[in-house]
Amino acid sequence: MQRDFDKPTMVKIEKVIEETPTVRTLVFSDDVLSAVLPGQFAMVWIPGVNELPMSVMVYLEKGRAAFTIRKRGVASTSLYEVKVGEYIGVRGPYGNSFAIRQGNLLLVGGGTGLVPLMRLLTFLKKNDNVTVLIGSNTKKEVFFEKMANQILANNKHQVIVTTEDGSYGTAGVVTDVMEKLIFEKKFDAVYTCGPEKMMYKVVQLASSKKIFVQASLERMMKCGIGICGSCCIKEELVCHDGTVFDGKYLLSNKEFGYTHRNKSGIIENY
Amino acid sequence: MQRDFDKPTMVKIEKVIEETPTVRTLVFSDDVLSAVLPGQFAMVWIPGVNELPMSVMVYLEKGRAAFTIRKRGVASTSLYEVKVGEYIGVRGPYGNSFAIRQGNLLLVGGGTGLVPLMRLLTFLKKNDNVTVLIGSNTKKEVFFEKMANQILANNKHQVIVTTEDGSYGTAGVVTDVMEKLIFEKKFDAVYTCGPEKMMYKVVQLASSKKIFVQASLERMMKCGIGICGSCCIKEELVCHDGTVFDGKYLLSNKEFGYTHRNKSGIIENY
Amino acid sequence: MKPDIYTQVGSIRLERPTMLASGILGISLDVFARLYQAGAGALVTKSLSKEPWEGYVNPTVIGVEAGYLNAVGLSNPGAPYFAKMISSNKTIPIIVSLVGSVEEDFTFMIKQFEDAKILGYELNLSCPHVEKVGLEVGDDPELVKKIVKSVKSKSKVPVIAKVGLGSSDYLDTVQAACEAGIDAITAINTLRAMAIDVETARPILSNKIGGLSGPAIKPIAVRCVYEISSKFNIPIIGCGGISDWKDAIEFIFAGSSAVQIGSVIGEKWIGVFSEINDGISKYMEKKRFSKISEMVGIAKRF
Amino acid sequence: MKPDIYTQVGSIRLERPTMLASGILGISLDVFARLYQAGAGALVTKSLSKEPWEGYVNPTVIGVEAGYLNAVGLSNPGAPYFAKMISSNKTIPIIVSLVGSVEEDFTFMIKQFEDAKILGYELNLSCPHVEKVGLEVGDDPELVKKIVKSVKSKSKVPVIAKVGLGSSDYLDTVQAACEAGIDAITAINTLRAMAIDVETARPILSNKIGGLSGPAIKPIAVRCVYEISSKFNIPIIGCGGISDWKDAIEFIFAGSSAVQIGSVIGEKWIGVFSEINDGISKYMEKKRFSKISEMVGIAKRF
Ligand SMILES: Cc1cc2nc3c(=O)[nH]c(=O)nc-3n(C[C@H](O)[C@H](O)[C@H](O)COP(=O)(O)OP(=O)(O)OC[C@H]3O[C@@H](n4cnc5c(N)ncnc54)[C@H](O)[C@@H]3O)c2cc1C
Ligand SMILES: Cc1cc2nc3c(=O)[nH]c(=O)nc-3n(C[C@H](O)[C@H](O)[C@H](O)COP(=O)(O)OP(=O)(O)OC[C@H]3O[C@@H](n4cnc5c(N)ncnc54)[C@H](O)[C@@H]3O)c2cc1C
Ligand SMILES: Cc1cc2nc3c(=O)[nH]c(=O)nc-3n(C[C@H](O)[C@H](O)[C@H](O)COP(=O)(O)O)c2cc1C
Ligand SMILES: Cc1cc2nc3c(=O)[nH]c(=O)nc-3n(C[C@H](O)[C@H](O)[C@H](O)COP(=O)(O)O)c2cc1C
Ligand code: FES
Ligand code: FES
Question: Which residue in the set C30, C76, C269 is minimally distant from B234, CB to CB?
């Protein structure tokens, strides 16, 4: 059956993984989404509820893909609560992807921002030396540490977890650890995804050391296709020109780190 | 540029060949129509006038095709009068094609019915022994004799012209010559196109000798696509199931040789 | 057990939910027999008029993106000729499509079919490209009411009204037909449209304006079926751009009890009837529906 | 000499005939600047209302065959906010699209733009999926007349009315707008349509019914432009399914002085503006047209 790219294709949830008390991963079979590039996202329809943009999570089995959802408002909570055997609709993938560099690589992720980074890990070369920084509030909310180690099993690598309350790993915020790291060691590229304030800091830090850095952004998405305009950040459309942007560009974009548009298109502060 | 199959593609007439005082060949460039199968036709739009089904004529140059038109009513006369540099629209090709057999082959054509037969000649194998029977009223109206000889230059072959008034070639009707020929020699296949009464006779003759025979039919064509129904002959749609039918089938079809439908769908006698 | 895909359009029972749409291959009893064999549940004839019509000069049908544009001009051999042609019919479920301007046209035509074995009539109130008939009738609810009343009083078989989008609210046409006692509604006909050749600046169809059919109009047709079925309690036959079993199911969910198949035949040929029937049957099995009627209109509950 | 592709829509002069259609990427001045750079001759804003609107819950836009279905619900930041946002504009040819239910809505909004540098207004009389505005206004010619008269009396810049196919005759809307002194007509908006998911039987758009855009509607839009230009002496902006320069020429031949580009951006991205402009320019050169105006409506002479 031919797939209509921009129309939801229904997929059945085959497995639900509890990552933390507020985060779950839903696994399903889909050839198209199992093969997306790191940074690409899908529009996910929760029938009768809403449709949300979601980074496509890796699932390490051919033909399968996943979404990792943190429950927040009504829509994400409904998606979080989807059971095995139930259907959701997916369309896409949309957006561009991280530019894959080689050498000493640093990935800095917070919360579900780790999702595109996990996929990025599967694209790295054997010789890359990879450092993954995982930021979390508290021990209970740490996830993907094991997965990162698993994907990187054959690489020289390091997975560092930070918790703000110090209940696990290094105490503090992820950007403090990053600051130290880039002072100690030369990195060839930094990739980040997570809360925009965090990404802003990551981009600033990396740029101050002249390290190539890319961030994957979130904005209000309605179409995902590049026609409705709701996802704009200055002159860029995040769903089409992004979600991944070079740090160099982002620092020139006065909205990055500060403001985003709400559903009606009004600019609000972060 | 992608071509919309069922929408007229405009082609410029590059050359006009006078075949007889009432028959002209219009040559144009078109990759699609230059490569059709023998028996296939196009719908030809004469802007502002009409659109007519026309067998696609060979033109022995890569990328070029032609139509050979006898002027009859308003529409065909307008097409006949198209000048070099003018545009006509073509859509298609439509329909099936002759089944190509090998051995001793007999082609029987009358008038512009020779068009699909000329293309058929270009599909024959080197070892085929080919006899072409060309029927005409009178010397002035004979055409394609030279072309047939030219295409068959490397084959064992024979081009026989008959004229009803005896002004050229063998005097008489083409089916009389055929009757003699199939009595004298064993043929492996007979192909025919021309006036339906003639084809009916050809099919009968060939069938009486149990020779494989196919005829290419004409019916009122509006869409060419297989949706309007105007080209039906009993349960068959000539634009889709034909134009080429096996003689065996045709003899079981009570309309063949006797009746056809007019523009409103009323059955009329030939 | 394989689900049975029979369906009931009001009092008309069809073995299979896929009907042939009017004007598609529909002028010969032999072709009808072949299409019935191929899986069509009923055959709607080309729209017939009192007298034979030649229709428009070619081009009458051309392809456009995701569909066809046609202005055949309702060419047809006329009701009397056609009635004679199908007089030998015994087994084929034929629905006769009629087109006319005034009550008398229809009265005359129905008389022709008095002894014919037919399933019903479909009144074409929606041809978008012939003057004084079709949409020009459909756009006038009072005239629709008159015609439907008159036809209903004369016909021994069920009468369906085929509606389309004209220059008035098609729901008023549906309402008029319902008030006059119509048995079912077919929705929709083609939509007024045109194509102009860029090389010559000429409208391509000889009639200039024609009707758009095919996948392009499907979402519009689904919407109409949904609207009619939301507002009226009348059996509906969905039509417009149906290309596969999923499309057919979509129309059924929107509120159709049966569907008509037209343009897709140009792309997939007549095997499409059994392809769609089989698809519906497999879907019903998977989803544990035992009858088509269980699926009709269920999109409305959301 | 390369032909100049400027065009004149009534008193509005555009350097290039390709405009951005309303609602397409149209909420930010920065994006407008980028699209202007990319070749758009004018930028029509997202339709603005008096107050900010969130629009409908997602799904609000989905793909269908040869097009999109959308029910964004006219989400917009509101006229006052938007007017402030574009107050710094000096060079970008912006046309402000407005949507409302009564005269006062428009009066209020026009007041906001009194000091803004804009080319004109486009009144959205044709949004098919929001109650009480759009088509519900367009379907009421008397109301259209009132609104247009009032807007015309207050506006210092030209006013365009955007029409679509609703439940009344759109030509009556055009006539009402013309009588009230409108400067130009944009035709057409999206067409009411819907899609139902086969797996869940649910309408996919949260609003259930939305508007169909893209190549699917092109032949219908061309027909409307042709009809309007045949009946009225009013400049027309063609819109609906334009994907390449040939489509643009087709609309110009039908009677448009300029065209609006929408859905195709989802497929070809914003390079499509210069692609179409270049195509038109090359075509004019080949056919020896020296001005767009020489081509406007020439299909009507056949
Ligand atoms: C490209 C992209 C990838 C994403 N990937 C993930 C992921 O992998 N896992 C995950 O849990 N979340 C992801 N999100 C966030 C997710 O789409 C939702 O924003 C989030 O789940 C909150 O939704 P809600 O409606 O439940 O929250 P609410 O509490 O209702 O809304 C909170 C905020 O969420 C944001 N939001 C709501 N709807 C949208 C929308 N349609 N588009 C963008 N932002 C919206 C708005 O900022 C809103 O103010 C991603 C977002 C984007 C843009
Ligand atoms: C498959 C096919 C291939 C053909 N190939 C050729 C060819 O190579 N050269 C050639 O000169 N002619 C060909 N014809 C015949 C041609 O299409 C016209 O029928 C013929 O030129 C007379 O057209 P007219 O309208 O000028 O004649 P008119 O005098 O107006 O009509 C005479 C008769 O032509 C037939 N006719 C008219 N229009 C059509 C139509 N749309 N479809 C079918 N028949 C029609 C009808 O029987 C009509 O009664 C072919 C026809 C078919 C069906
Ligand atoms: C070539 C052609 C001829 C048609 N003739 C008729 C007709 O005579 N009467 C009628 O009611 N509808 C006629 N229609 C409309 C179809 O019955 C159908 O309503 C329309 O094509 C939409 O369905 P589709 O998209 O499946 O083709 C015709 C359509 C086509 C394409
Ligand atoms: C996502 C989307 C949003 C739209 N929003 C508006 C709008 O706010 N106002 C309006 O007049 N038209 C709106 N339209 C209609 C377009 O301006 C245009 O008329 C229609 O899409 C047909 O053109 P197209 O086929 O080139 O897209 C919208 C269309 C789409 C696809
Ligand atoms: S989400 Fe619509 S343009 Fe990006
Ligand atoms: S010409 Fe229309 S079906 Fe054959």
Answer: C30
